[in-house]
Write the structure tokens for this entry.
Amino acid sequence: MLDARRSKVLKALVEAYIRTGEPVSSQAVLDRSGIDVSSATVRNDLARLESYGFVEQPHTSSGRVPTRQGYRFYVDHLSPSKLREATKDQIDDFFRDVHVQISEMLRDTSTLVSEITAYPAVVVGPGASVDIIQDVRLIPLGGTTVLVVAIAENGRVHQEYVDIEADVDAYTVETAERLLNAAFNGQPLDSPEADALKRADLPAVVKRIISPVSARLQAARSNDREVYVGGSSQMADLWNDLSMVRRLLKLLDEEASLIDLMSDELGGTNVKFGSDADTDTDFAVVTSAYETPSGAQGRVGVIGPMRMNYRRTIRIVEQVSEGLEDTFGMEK
């Protein structure tokens, strides 16, 4: 743990480097920190911070820059900040607008965050657990395959192909459809009524449809995660290293890897620095969780260079997460 003075020295150095992108001299640290000590004392503090691994000196005669460990200490000790009123109003106005579908809202949210932060933004949906079903339709496709279409109140449509392993007539399909609608209407995909329906005393031929269809719809609750990326075109302006841009574009294109990067078991706000397996990777990920009334969680985040404005970025993703929570809370 750093003492109070060296913490201020490190904070001043990180913020100066974020602002300029140039190695920071001891005099610049002294001017920014406002500490009442000599420049020699600051030089000694910087040398000690370097020995701890918080800063490094790119060249012998240059100033110092923060390391990943230095960024971590800085982020972990940030004090809360406030957004400018204009930025807060922009976010509030966005969520006051009517969004017909969840998918549309999440996609537009990724664009909003990218526009405000000037970094690529990622929004991970809470999954199908937020969906309240209003209609279930069964469409025979020939043979033993049935297309199941479940329409949610929020406008999202779930389609599943189910093999019922038997030929059934139109009347049996209509009977199963009616029973499934009774079980799922006004309920989430993990409707307890659907479990009860599978155990009900029904003709075997009807159960042959109901059991696999119910199971497939309930499985969609945990498997359906929507991911939206906004502002990926900004990458070339943020990273001069084209190989870094290509690596990040590949990451953004791999949905499973992106969800894993955005995830955090503890919830709340989190900052990750690049890849744990690759200490040379120059990017940071700032994310914040939002929760729906059903308890499902999604995340909002940005991906940018390690030299990003963390204080502002953290507050933006938190403000947007709060807006998403309020919006989901207003859903029927």
Remarks:
- The CA atoms of residues 149 and 159 lie 5 Å apart.
- The first helix runs from residue 4 to 20.
